[in-house]
Amino acid sequence: MQFTKTLTNWYSVNKRDLPWRNTNNPYYIWLSEIILQQTQVKQGLPYYEAFIAQYPTVYELANANEEAVLKLWQGLGYYSRARNLHATAKHIAFNLEGVFPDNYKDLLLLKGVGDYTASAIASFCYNEVAAVVDGNVYRVLSRFYGIHTPINSTEGKKVFKALADDLIDTKNPADYNQAIMEFGAVQCKPSSPDCSVCPLIENCMAYRNNEIGILPIKIKNNKPKNKYFNYLVYVSDTDETILEQRRGKGIWQNLYQFPLLESKKSIEESEFMELFNPDETVAEISLFNEVDIIHKLSHQHLHTKFWIIKTTSLPESSMLISEIENYAVPILIKNFMDAFNFQNEI
């Protein structure tokens, strides 16, 4: 098929030199694919290199402490990926004797591995004919074939998966899968692609019908909920503060944060004092940011204030301020820690 041949020819000339493309080691491929879920290559590459350096085999990763894994993951977001990564490493190391499943069907049984990731590992490592369908693939196929079925609908997922299965190069599935994903990432980009140098331009339905900016079509999700966070940043006379570990199944599970008070809206100092109700150990309260810091997650927007609380005494669970960098925290907290100069406060 000309579409398939054109893509693989383009890939042979234009592919980026990425470390996971120079190996068929399933540990390296699996690690890269988990990191690159909902993450661009330029952001994920340093994390991949850090994980390989820290945990060169699945055994080292399996034997690591979860907090250490989360700390290394810090800043990538979607932390369930890191927890699943660690759980799967332990399963492979301790239950499968360090041997990764060697086919799509069994790979799909691993925690954190879905259709796309299983297809990628199966084709890249074992040359199995398993077509990948990710955001890049959706974009390329929807534009070239002029498909208006929403990519995040049940019907759309079936349509695109079937088309991908029909198009894959059965003799060289690994290169074809890499090619179509790379084409979407580098050439057929989400916005303002340079169609003048596209090798598929002559038969591209989206270009012909002036629909490059329309396709692919995606059903809009519900409007994100707004939440209002007030973090209590304690600074004691003895150079200590408090970090608490988040529990439960909500966002940032097992990561650390400053004590949190949630409010129904963004609040001013008088309202905060009523909510906080300080005791006699509190010497001074000040607001770090007058304007809310808005941290956008997929289903919610966090409107955040950081309240600096100078105190004469903290409970035994407190820690030295100099130690807080050792804990895995959400990027929202890390950005605050980088901006707030604790040393000027102690």
From TrEMBL:
GO terms for molecular function: 4 iron, 4 sulfur cluster binding; 8-oxo-7,8-dihydroguanine DNA N-glycosylase activity; adenine/guanine mispair binding; metal ion binding; oxidized purine DNA binding; purine-specific mismatch base pair DNA N-glycosylase activity. The keyword Cell division does not apply. InterPro entries: A/G_AdeGlyc_MutY, DNA_glycosylase, HhH-GPD_domain, HhH_base_excis_C, HhH_motif, MIG/MutY, MutY_C, NUDIX_hydrolase-like_dom_sf. Residues 35-186 form the HhH-GPD domain. GO terms for biological process: base-excision repair; mismatch repair. It holds the Pfam family HhH-GPD. It catalyses: Hydrolyzes free adenine bases from 7,8-dihydro-8-oxoguanine:adenine mismatched double-stranded DNA, leaving an apurinic site. Binds 1 [4Fe-4S] cluster. It comes from the Bacteria. The keyword Secreted does not apply. Its cofactor is [4Fe-4S] cluster. Its EC number is 3.2.2.31. Keywords: 4Fe-4S, DNA damage, DNA repair, Glycosidase, Hydrolase, Iron, Iron-sulfur, Metal-binding. Belongs to the Nth/MutY family. NCBIfam families: mutY. Adenine glycosylase active on G-A mispairs. MutY also corrects error-prone DNA synthesis past GO lesions which are due to the oxidatively damaged form of guanine: 7,8-dihydro-8-oxoguanine (8-oxo-dGTP). This is Adenine DNA glycosylase. The gene is mutY.
